[in-house]
């Protein structure tokens, strides 16, 4: 290998090929001496950087990490990599004191304080502080996805996204939380997860001052103020404020259910629904009411339950002004005005305004009685009927007459009794 210099250009010669770079084509390059790679034609201002770049073609990686055995072509890259194991961050920002493991990352970070964005997209005019970010951004316009999965042939615009995707095939989750030991395939996911323990919410809404642990959640929230719904379904044209909402919605049309329970093999279209379902097997109820200490398997159930104590009813009927603690109850109530009964029995064609009513009705045809008394083993088709029956064993009579103080085990029995007093 040898180096030779011509006017305005320098070449690193190897046995493979020689490429000529005409730097005079760019007005900004006229007064620069460039070092050009003979394999790929890439230009560099320094010969040392060209030699480093050339190692990428030779694939020689003589430096190996003692911890994870990852190999590097440069000793400096190994040194920087080793900081991922030691968590060493020797470069500190003198403005906000944020620490970095690489000097280049600190340099780029400082542009945030200067608000310096030197690179602009000539298509949509969006500005960027890093040229690499501009190059990646361009792929939105070109739809270029240069990174390819050898397993399932899925394409990606970012190499980091491909690397993360590959872990879905290998099931590798190299990043572990040192508090709860939950594992993650991406370092960023671990960082976000850690805020559950620290309750850190660094992103704040300028409109209502609500705080968020993730920037993407803040961006989605801001659209509740702007009413913006930029993501549209190409099948039914429903609009959504968040891309992930559109993705989940699309599964209604595709019938895709990518999340499967390892216990009973039930499939789900949303991962969070699978997580909630798994608690039916583990009996886990991680959400507890701080007033009555009742436990719930879902955070949403706890939130709704809390309204029993606060008597909060945020959902109001526009027709009769009746208030409800749950949105679903309002939706069902509205059908009393519209007389809508969208749920139909495929056996007898009876129609119902509520899905759970249809489910209960269906047991007439199947003779299913899933609720069993632990005392006498009598079975019931309704959980409410089981609860009433259990009072025959406990002799509990929770419904009391305000007039004469007589007690009843069923609400309807009290209601019937009250007629005695109203007749008088």
TrEMBL record:
Q: Which domain of life is it from?
A: Eukaryota
**Which GO terms of the cellular component aspect does the record hold?**
chromosome; nucleus
Task: Spell out the molecular function terms from Gene Ontology.
Answer: DNA-binding transcription factor activity, RNA polymerase II-specific; RNA polymerase II cis-regulatory region sequence-specific DNA binding; zinc ion binding
Major location, coarse class? nucleus
- Give the keywords, sorted: DNA-binding, Metal-binding, Nucleus, Repeat, Transcription, Transcription regulation, Zinc, Zinc-finger
Q: Where in the cell is it found?
A: Nucleus
Q: What is this protein called?
A: Zinc finger protein 227
Species of origin: Araneus ventricosus
